[in-house]
Amino acid sequence: MPFVPENLGLTDAGLPLLRDLIHERTGLFYDNGRYDMLSDRVAPLVVERGFRSFLDFYYLLKYDEQAAALEWRRVMDALSVQETYFWREIDQISALVCAVLPALVRATLERPIRIWSAPCATGEEPLTIAMALNEAGWFERVPIAIHASDASAAAIDKARQARYRERAFRSLPPHLRAKYFVQRDGAWQPIPELSNRITSWSVVNLACPDEIAPYASSPVIFCRNAFIYFSPTSVKQVVGELAARMPVPSYLFVGA
User: Fold this and answer.
1) pLDDT tens, 188-212?
2) Which domains does the chain possess?
């Protein structure tokens, strides 16, 4: 049985239906080992709506088209995992800089070369990519467009604000923080020369083909932090959509 906080006064009626609907719409899947997490994160949204059960919230998301548009954004914010940091899994980004980009420059005449970071959480990954490319001098050699997206609008808002605490720098070499960030009001912010390297920040649900279509034709896609939360069926669906749109040659970076 899922855990429902007693002080919220909810019954668990409808939680399995809500779980399946979230899986269908977002790709996120909560198996029996993560059922409690789903309950804990969604319960406050249910209570704020004045409902007494998850079933009422399920009906709203499923059948009330007008109200559901806003509620789905709140659901994505509640379920979003924004734990990331600069220079994470840097070997993959080094491969982009040293092997993938040279191969793309030789193989394609299309410019700019597009790189898509999805999901980008609060922005550490695309900024890391930009730093690595800048350190190698790539921006002076070829036009590059870096697009960053996440399913959570709240995460994208934080990425645009670009205010980072110490924890985000636990793997970034100190000389790069000194070069690319300045401290303001108790947080670190990227210098304009770095932040301006990100071409766009967007809210994109990877489970929605229409939303990924503008970016899925990129020859380089980083999708490293989503599939660990997806079901195998959802992973297959998303990868299939990407494969149908990505050019030849192209490169999909997934989580270790």
Assistant:
1) 999 999 999 999 999 999 999 999 9
2) 6-79 (1.10.155), 90-254 (3.40.50.150)
